[in-house]
């Protein structure tokens, strides 16, 4: 909004207030009532922004200034009804205002941080497990809100009854004033929602999330998609793609973290069929935004909308592959999660968390022991998603190191979850090699994490992810040049939204929906530190303060 528009809005507010004070005076709306409404709006505002950790007093003042006239308007409208109905309408309106802020307040009491984007995104996705983690799991919250609603209504009704002296009563003669009042009401409510409430993380992120998810759910498969093997005599077989969760590579000893969090991965450094990439980032810090881009043609650079273009399921289906989606996240048939519109087109779908939260090793247990034809497996971990403590069994709770006071206990538990991921990967590797006879095993994380810091607050730690690939001996024989190219690109800056092109490239696939410059396994790969982006193209990776240009 520019300065002229800002001035217009403030002028309008001043005029509205002058008008309201005129009415208050002329129709003798009691000052007690007027102040009670002021008290309620101020209370609502304070609770709504409580725990937001932003400098929000400006929004708070705006909120009160804008919300207050809507209360007077409701009083005006209600006054045309019988007394009990009038008091009921006024109390309900006040309650409606209080509902969201009170929820936020109880949430803060139980979690130490406010309801944020994470919670709103989880709610918007109707991801039961996550929503439960954020909301329903906290019984204090559920009961607190229910009791508050009931008690609040009674209290509000009583106060309104006491304050209501029936001195103010508008007749239908005041129709013209009523129309002006209602227009004011519509304008104010609209403005309030669009420009003030939208700045509370709570409301704004819910609206954004819902719009984004609906867009994803309407994904289209391109009609012109053509897919072939580059060399039909040199086809690869089974592929396993492990999508990690909230894994920041800076906490992997493979990437030189000081604690021994990934002992097995470190031992793999000597495996000649293994390559790990040093400067890999996410395209977005949220699962539901990152994973769809990881799996599809759309990336931050090519301008293809997230719901257009091909995805890896389309590509491999065209080559006769069976696609497996084995996940420790999400629910079958729930299209409200960003990755689900793609996952739902897999031939086999297994959701290991269907009944209760389980550890990631269950993903390995669900891999088949016998296979036919060609298969592409997606294993979607719960990885290091908060609450970290719930991500690893007791025998992996190993870290108790010093110097973490500023981050509470979280860093230890976070490292435990990385240690557990190392163990899970070791098991996936063994099964992929010995049972599935996979030619490619690839692991990358959806996004990173700053342990203990809610993802409402962007931090480059949330962008730094691992990317690791293992190849079979057979692959190494037939595609040595691809492996060598990947090795050459080991230090290149890369974002996970280009995985689509990279997997197509390293699999030896030819398609009209592919860009060589996004393919890390190609000599045409075109991106470097100054051109890679994150947060859906809004933040430059070259600004990453953690980047020390890691070599090896
Ligand atoms: Zn995630």
Question: What would you say this structure looks like, in words?
Answer:
- By secondary structure, this protein is an alpha/beta fold.
- It folds into 2 domains: 3-212, no CATH class; 238-543, Alkaline Phosphatase, subunit A.
- Helix content is 46%, strand content 10%.
- It has helices spanning 3-26, 31-49, 57-78, 83-111, 117-125, 128-136, 139-163, 175-196, 201-217, 263-267, 287-295, 312-318, 340-343, 361-365, 410-434, 473-478, 480-488, 499-506, and strands at 227-229, 239-244, 274-277, 279-281, 322-327, 348-351, 375-380, 440-445, 467-471, 493-495, 509-511, 533-534, 539-540.
- The strands form 4 sheets. The chain has a 7-stranded mixed β-sheet, sandwiched between helices.
- Strand 12 and strand 13 (539-540) form a beta hairpin.
- Helix 3 packs antiparallel against helix 4 (83-111) and helix 5 (117-125) packs across helix 6 (128-136).
- It is elongated.
- The chain starts with a helix and ends in a 12-residue tail after the last strand.
- The mean pLDDT is 83.
- The structure holds zinc ion.
- Zinc ion binds next to loops.
